Amino acid sequence: MHMTPPSEPTKRAYQSTEQRQSATIEAVVHLCSKQDPSTLTTTRIADEVGMSQGALFKHFPNKSSLWESVAGWVAGQLTDQVFGIADRHEQADQALEAMFLAHIGFIARHPGIPRLMLGELQKPGNQPAKRIVRQTLALYRQKIVALLNLGIEQKCITPTIDTEAAAVLYIGAIQGLVVQAMVGGDIASIEQTAPRIFKLFSASFRESAHDPKE
């Protein structure tokens, strides 16, 4: 008689838990595109996933832990997708452009993320999700500054650039583009506008990269 190894039920249960957690995180991101994240209830989230509120709390003990997991997912996706695309380019200026466009594309596919991140940053205190958002933004700035410094070494970016200010402007361009699209109710349009915005931004660091007197 064939008997199932004792480890298999445990493995299946573990996979089921991960799948439910993943589905819940995706549901939160999706719901945030439709309504203010602060108004989301665990009942609404559970309904979206198709489970009871009690079952939801088996995977996430409280709402804070769920928001922490969602913030962690966003941070991981940015690192894997956006940074990963930048790392495919040897030239820093090309990497900066690729990262900018990839980030905009990521937001276009997940329009609930800006609302979620802004909502967490506006909350009082220092909750785990808020710390993750802050850490992600700090890591993002570091990535931009590193690419700008690399571009200076490669002589494709002007050596007189203020890298810290440029990083703030870079992130601000993305945030401004997203906020305006949200106000206009047309988040999908940001992918068409993004190349023009980056062209204006890049003009500031490419214009004098090569001094004709040299």
UniProtKB/TrEMBL annotation:
Pfam families: TetR_N
Known DNA-binding region: 41-60
Protein keywords: DNA-binding, Transcription, Transcription regulation
Domain HTH tetR-type: start-end pairs: 18-78
InterPro entries: Homeodomain-like_sf (IPR009057), HTH-type_TetR-like_transc_reg (IPR050109), HTH_TetR (IPR001647), Tet_transcr_reg_TetR-rel_C_sf (IPR036271)
Coiled coil feature spans: none
Molecular function GO labels: DNA-binding transcription factor activity; transcription cis-regulatory region binding
Transferase among keywords: no
PANTHER family according to UniProt: HTH-TYPE TRANSCRIPTIONAL REGULATOR BETI (PTHR30055:SF234), HTH-TYPE TRANSCRIPTIONAL REGULATOR RUTR (PTHR30055)
Stated name of the protein: TetR family transcriptional regulator
Organism: Marinobacter persicus
